[in-house]
Design a protein that fits this description.
Shape: extended
Helix content: over 70%
CATH architecture of one domain: 2-Layer Sandwich
Order of helices and strands: HHHHHHHHHHHHHHHHHHHHEHEEHEE
Strand order of the largest sheet: 1-2-3-5-4
CATH class of one domain: Alpha Beta
Radius of gyration: 37 Å
CATH topology of one domain: Heat Shock Protein 90
Structural class: mainly alpha
Number of helices: 22
Length: 644
């Protein structure tokens, strides 16, 4: 048997929004948005749309949430919006980005002295730490929030905290405390008839009792969860409850175990739930084998062999041998008997090796003890001579002490000299690294300056030289009042010259764009965003939350070039339809977030590109920090923190 108990889920306090008439609400709000003119009204409507789309279309939900952020002028609404963006990042698995937005929301709410909403957002932050496996931090944050909700007589939010605290204690194998918190939460959910939350808490509580060793209470709670899940027609929860009940009854009631495991296996296949299905197959195969239903047992046990290892696999091979004997397939029975023997021999060999090492260790210990006894006997023989030569011994000891002292002084001096040499070597290496770093940064400065100078030179040459010549040619052609000199090509020639002149001016302007960022970083970013959005291939929204002061021109140029590089990557590689560029300021640090809704990439396999290296060097030169949060099919978020 392979017995593995599985909880249904961790109780995360980012609860789904259950909405009736959702489509009609979306249509109504979309109509209201087109007629709204007040930024506050627009922010409220787009935030409502983001919440409606939260469990339907995360991409649209994010789009509306970021729109709400651009319209928001009210701090309270801004906190609600950043909290919603954090939720959306949580649902797409971007836990670091979610943490940033939750912490922004908490900071704003603290400035508003809104303790209730701070505690509520802390539930979400605690859920992130629970997902990351930082159980002690989860317990600390949620215990504080639970105490606050208790002081406000807010039972529901307190129960949400209890459930997450229970999950954290269970992961730390403190089952008594986990059960205490789970039962407190369950009482509150039951009293308020919150059956969805009961369905989450009951199986977790049952598993906690089982791991503690109380099978009777575990079965009782699983039966309650089973009734609830059947009433709600929650098939996913039922599949896991049936699986756990089947495992519990394996030893005590094989008929009940079979009934539950068959139900679990059927539901898991219908729902295509592959995680843990090998446990169901193994245990159900074991039941079929006991009942002499050999063909069914063979099918399930062979499926399970691909997902288990070690002693569990050896057990399955043994079951398969018995099953094939049951259908008189002696060749197959011998094959699996041999596989079981070989695997068991391998496992036993490892155990024997450990046993041999233990014996050798014991032998060495006994051998050392014998040596000690022999030495004690020899010492008795020597004692008499030692007494006779006491004076000589004292002299020898004095000489030895003197030699020891001299040796100690010499070794101490040698050690001091070695330490000094090592410190000097470290100092020289640090100085070398500093000079090397300085030269590297000077090289980067020279490259960047050369790039800017080259851009300016090309732009000026295009505008002053080639542009002026085309302009002159244009005047010559336009001075002809008739088309006799050019025949039928007169109008075409004029049109071609006009187009060429326009393109040269545009190219000149683009080539020189942003070289000095004279209008400011944010204004220049909005300008290039408007220019790219004009292609109708990619929409770029630039959001300035609270940045009111300028950086040095050189720093703004560097940041602008980083943003250009990121936008170029979005255009070339991401397949995105929308990019959000957000500026904010906190503790004299400029925070820039560039997020697209493209296909994302595996960060571990994309660390050596020239563009990324250039960005890292620029950020390093600005003494800033760079964070990249991306995974396949979930877009890319790049966060820059630059000292102002």
């Amino acid at each position: 048997m392979i017995r593995r108990m599985r909880s249904i889920m961790l109780f995360l306090c980012l609860f789904p929004v259950f909405l009736l008439g959702q489509n009609s609400q979306i249509d109504s709000l979309s109509t209201a948005l087109t007629s709204a003119s007040n930024p506050y009204d627009k922010a409220k409507i787009t935030l409502q749309l983001a919440k409606l789309y939260e469990r339907v279309d995360l991409v649209k939900a994010k789009t509306y949430a970021y729109q709400a952020l651009t319209f928001t002028t009210n701090d309270s609404l801004a906190a609600e919006t950043t909290n919603e963006i954090g939720r959306l990042h949580f649902f797409t698995g971007k836990l670091d980005s979610a943490s940033i937005y939750f912490e922004k929301a908490i900071k704003t709410l603290r400035s508003l002295k809104d303790s209730m909403r701070v505690a509520t957002v802390n539930i979400s932050l605690g859920a992130i730490y629970l997902r990351k496996g930082d159980y002690k931090k989860t317990i600390t944050i949620l215990t504080e929030s639970a105490a606050f909700f208790e002081s406000q007589n807010d039972e529901l939010n307190a129960a949400k905290c209890y459930s997450n605290i229970a999950s954290a204690f269970a992961e730390l194998e403190n089952y008594d405390t986990a059960i205490e918190y789970s039962e407190k939460a369950l009482r509150i959910f039951s009293n308020n008839n919150l059956v969805q939350f009961e369905l989450i808490t009951l199986p977790n509580l049952a598993t906690q009792y089982f791991k503690k060793g109380d099978t009777i209470k575990a079965i009782g709670y699983y039966n309650k969860a089973e009734t609830l899940a059947e009433n709600l027609d929650n098939k996913r929860s039922l599949s896991m409850i049936y699986n756990n009940l089947g495992n519990l009854y394996l030893d005590s009631d094989s008929e009940k175990a079979k009934a539950y495991l068959e139900k679990a296996y059927s539901l898991k296949n219908k729902l295509n739930l592959k995680s843990g299905i090998e446990v169901t197959e193994s245990n159900l195969g074991y039941i079929y084998l006991k009942n002499k239903e050999y063909s069914k047992a063979i099918s399930l046990l062979e499926n399970a062999t691909s997902a288990v290892k070690g002693k569990q696999l050896a057990t399955l091979y043994s079951y398969l041998k018995d099953a094939y004997e049951g259908v008189n397939n002696i060749d197959k029975a011998l094959e699996f008997s041999e596989k079981s023997r070989v695997l068991n021999d391998s496992l036993l060999s490892a155990e024997h090796q450990k046993t041999i090492l233990d014996i050798e260790s014991k032998y060495e210990t006994e051998k050392n003890e014998k040596k000690i006894l022999q030495l004690e006997s020899d010492n008795l023989k020597v004692n008499y001579k030692r007494k006779q030569n006491r004076n000589l011994l004292f002299i020898a000891l004095g000489v030895l002490i003197l030699l020891f002292f001299v040796t100690y002084i010499l070794l101490k001096n040698a050690k001091r000299k070695r330490i000094i040499m090592e410190q000097n070597s470290i100092i020289k290496q640090q100085e070398f690294d500093r000079v090397l770093k300085s030269k590297e940064l000077e090289g980067i400065d020279a490259i960047l300056a050369a790039q800017e100078e080259e851009r300016t030179t090309i732009a000026e040459d295009l505008h002053d030289n080639l542009g002026s010549k085309i302009a002159t040619l244009k005047l010559y052609v336009e001075n002809y009042n008739t088309a006799t000199a050019f025949g039928d090509y007169h109008e075409k020639l004029k049109l071609l010259i006009n187009d060429t002149y326009t393109e040269i001016r545009a190219f000149s302007k683009n080539k020189n764009f942003g070289a000095h960022v004279d209008k400011g970083l944010i204004a220049s970013t909005k300008a290039i965003a408007h220019q790219i959005s004009g292609t109708e291939q990619l929409t770029i929204n630039v959001i300035n939350i609270d940045v009111n002061k300028r950086l040095e021109n050189a720093a703004e140029i560097q940041i602008f070039r980083i943003i250009q590089e990121l936008l170029t990557n979005s255009i070339k590689h991401s397949g995105a339809s929308e990019v959000i560029v957000q500026f904010s300021e906190e503790n004299n640090v400029l925070n820039v977030i560039v997020e697209d809704n493209g296909k994302g990439f595996d960060i571990s396999k994309n660390t050596t590109g020239t563009g990324l290296i250039n960005i890292e060097k620029r950020v390093e030169k600005l003494n800033g920090e760079l964070f990249i949060d991306s995974s396949l099919d979930t877009g890319t978020t790049v966060i820059l923190n630059i000292p102002m």
